[in-house]
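Quick one, T. Sequence first:
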Amino acid sequence: MRKTLYLLFIVVMLAGCVPQKEILYLQDKDKDYTEQTFENKKAQNKIKNFDQIYIQVSSFDNGEVNFMSNDANRYGGGRTEADIAMVSYTVDRDGTVKLPILGKTEVVDLTPNEAAEKIRKELESYLNTPSVRVSFVNKSITVLGSVDNPGRYFYSSEYLNVFQAIGLAGDVTEYGNRREVMIIRDSEDKVTRKKIDLTQVDLLAKSDLYLQSDDIVYVAPLKRRYWGFQAFPWSIIISSITAFVLVAEYVK
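Structure tokens:
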């Protein structure tokens, strides 16, 4: 009887444990390395339909002549992210932005630097030595599933990789499946989904490492059902074992 109870207790304890290999990122067979280098050329981000872009124009003309001046006095307030968002341009369905004097200017499928150079050349007929800077505004990703703080997160850096995105959401929970992370991407009237494995070190050399704005990252739960120690139903287990012992002794 005691052996049966001990065996039952061990089985219950093991059922609540998660193997270490399920929670380690970037696992490598070579555990004795001191430094590794992975080549991963970043693709340049291009402007897409419905993107929000900030266009900053400066020239030797004063603010009255420079009709595209972005100085703080022109719009009021400072240059916070909220201020920039209010004076940004949204790329229309046809891939253009409507600019003062210039009218509709096509920027879709151009990098921010390429769009800036195109606008600069068009402004040379109106401004004295114009200088143009174009940048993305309100870039965001959404992290869902088995993470500590699921939600939508905004970022301002040019590139964001999947580990940084998961870090924004407080990391994957102990019971999240790091081998099944789905990236959902909406682009050019198509929605694609792709699974990546965060435990594979080869991910560092793949383009899947980097996310695009508006991507959705979904971390699937492990297939088995787990209980955390803080939520483990000790009272139910102990009561069941006690009842089992009493019934067994009575029958005996």
